[in-house]
Amino acid sequence: MREPTGNFTFLHRICTLVVLLCFVHISVTLLYYVKSWDFKQPSIQTQPGQRKLTFNRESSEEESKPTTNLPHIIPNITDTPEELQQCPDPSPLLVGPLRIEFSAPVSLEHVRSENPALQEGGRFKPKDCIALQKVAIIIPFRKRDEHLKFWLYYLHPILQRQQLDYGVYIINQDGDETFNRAKLLNVGYAEALKEYGYECFVFSDVDLIPMDDRNTYKCFSQPRHLSVSMDKFGFRLPYNQYFGGVSSMSKEQFLKINGFPNNYWGWGGEDDDIFNRLSSKGMSISRPSGAIGKCRMIRHDRDKQNDPNPQRFDRIAHTRETMHKDGINSLSYKVVKVEKDQLFTKITVDLGEAPK
Ligand SMILES: [Mn+2]
């Protein structure tokens, strides 16, 4: 009886050991399985939730803070491919040449319904990537509502395809004083910066529409002239120093020239003054090619209260002496009204009186 009993207890022990080993093996496998399942959970949720990119980014950064006492988890979270990347340059959504015409009128209701991704104030940022630049579009304005509708109708889809983080600011001159385009542009710069951390400013006339979406409304290493071949001038630059129509400048470039002149009342000259400011600070003008820089101007008669400024030639001749006293550092105005629409922020301003 001893031998079989001894054999039995030996076999029994071996069996118990094998069962225990199996149990340990299964539990370890289970543990790893549950762990990996836990990590997959948040990444499955973030994929469809990429709509609000900054909120996601900020909250994921905040969420990762309390987990610092579990160092092995952090690389797993930050390495997830769902983290938003910078948008590619150029944007893959661009289509190239566009058909632009002004025969059929458009309504604001229609433009609003065609651009559901816009946020109040004419704000937009891409959902799936981080925009390359934060751009404020500044439009000097007075009584051009028909032109503004066309501008909004054509530009909003273009700017969204360009994957910019942008806002549209209509700077409306109050009252019947002579029009002052450059001062309105200064106001636009100052007011837009109060709202958001814009790093680039596009200054556009309300009646100019680009004919190719590869003409990106952003900033470059040198100040950019965007409206290089206008139908009005036979699709050519009227002269080499021309900087009117649509242009863009980074915050740094704008501040380097003390912004724009405030004392050009009436039509003409302020764009040449801006060119003089840029060249006196050693900057050059960057431009797209003539083909990509084509644009159409909505035909119109000259506005009342915007007669050619007779002082413009004298002013342009003295830009270098006056630019440090007259510009963003001497800007004064009164905001009369701020209106927020889905398509734009409209700021009505009192610029004061032109010296008589
Ligand atoms: Mn015009």
UniProtKB/TrEMBL annotation:
E.C. numbers: 2.4.1.-
The Galactosyltransferase N-terminal domain, residue ranges: 87-219
Cofactor(s) required for function per UniProt: Mn(2+)
Transmembrane regions: 12-34
Region entry Disordered, spans: 50-73
Residues annotated as domain Galactosyltransferase C-terminal: 224-301
Keywords (A to Z) from UniProt: Disulfide bond, Glycoprotein, Glycosyltransferase, Golgi apparatus, Manganese, Membrane, Metal-binding, Signal-anchor, Transferase, Transmembrane, Transmembrane helix
Bilayer topology annotation: Single-pass type II membrane protein
Swiss-Prot/TrEMBL GO biological process terms: carbohydrate metabolic process; protein N-linked glycosylation
GO cellular component: Golgi cisterna membrane; Golgi membrane
Catalytic activity field: N-acetyl-D-glucosamine + UDP-alpha-D-galactose = beta-D-galactosyl-(1->4)-N-acetyl-D-glucosamine + UDP + H(+)
Subcellular location: Golgi apparatus membrane
Pathway(s) per entry: Protein modification; protein glycosylation
GO function terms (MF aspect): beta-N-acetylglucosaminylglycopeptide beta-1,4-galactosyltransferase activity; cytoskeletal protein binding; metal ion binding; N-acetyllactosamine synthase activity
One Pfam family in the UniProt entry: Glyco_transf_7N
Similarity annotation: Belongs to the glycosyltransferase 7 family.
Function per UniProt: Responsible for the synthesis of complex-type N-linked oligosaccharides in many glycoproteins as well as the carbohydrate moieties of glycolipids.
Protein name (record): Beta-1,4-galactosyltransferase
The organism of origin for this protein: Astyanax mexicanus (Blind cave fish)
